[in-house]
């Protein structure tokens, strides 16, 4: 055996078929690797391509998107004041403004007022109180010239004469009402104010029923 080389027998990596065990079925669970991760045939440590259940450190809530050197922005608090609502412009009463302007522009004229009353008396032949009104017009003239009547009363008398001249009995009655309210406590104006009232009532009735006849 000098020329013969002794070959060492190596253990075979293939499993022995001397004592075959029962075969694996289709529903048997897969074989698990050794706990130490070493291959049963070579003893080498196998590195798994994917590690499960690996712990990864996550940043705390709210600090992931913040830079350590950048201070957080201070958001302005919402305003609690209600929004400003623009109010529509106040409507101007054109009629009231016109009346006020006419009062300021209208000057008192005693002569024109007396002339208006004379024309009114001449326009009617059926008014039985002409003489009385003529007499009371002298009283009005005297008190007007002596400034015993305020401007409101004088203006109302003047407007009453204009209203009767154009047969506007509604405006004449309004002016007469202003005179009565202004002189309610004055007894020295009762006679001529009553004469003016009778004149206004005559034309008010004439505007409805016409001038009375002699029949």
Automatic annotation (TrEMBL):
Residues 1-77 are annotated as: Disordered. GO terms for biological process: regulation of transcription by RNA polymerase II. One of its GO terms (cellular component) is nucleus. It comes from the Eukaryota. PANTHER family: STEROID RECEPTOR RNA ACTIVATOR 1. This is SRA1/Sec31 domain-containing protein. One of its GO terms (molecular function) is transcription coactivator activity.
């Amino acid at each position: 055996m000098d020329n013969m080389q002794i070959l060492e027998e190596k253990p075979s990596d293939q499993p022995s078929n001397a004592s075959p065990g029962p075969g694996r079925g289709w529903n048997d669970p897969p074989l698990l690797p050794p706990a130490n991760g070493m291959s049963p045939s070579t003893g080498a440590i196998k590195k798994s391509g994917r590690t499960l259940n690996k712990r990864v450190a996550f940043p705390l809530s709210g600090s992931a998107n913040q830079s350590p050197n950048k201070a957080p922005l201070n958001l302005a608090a919402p305003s609690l004041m209600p929004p400003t609502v623009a109010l529509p412009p106040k409507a101007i009463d054109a009629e009231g403004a016109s009346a006020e302007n006419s009062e300021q522009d209208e000057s008192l004229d005693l002569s024109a007022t007396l002339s208006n009353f004379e024309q009114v008396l001449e326009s009617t032949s059926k008014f039985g109180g002409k003489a009385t009104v003529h007499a009371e017009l002298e009283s009005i003239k005297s008190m007007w010239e002596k400034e015993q009547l305020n401007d409101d009363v004088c203006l109302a008398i003047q407007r009453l004469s204009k209203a009767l001249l154009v047969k506007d009995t509604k405006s004449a009655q309004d002016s007469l009402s202003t005179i009565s309210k202004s002189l309610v406590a004055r007894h020295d104006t009762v006679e001529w104010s009553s004469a003016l009232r009778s004149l206004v009532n005559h034309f008010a009735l004439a505007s409805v029923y016409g001038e009375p006849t002699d029949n």
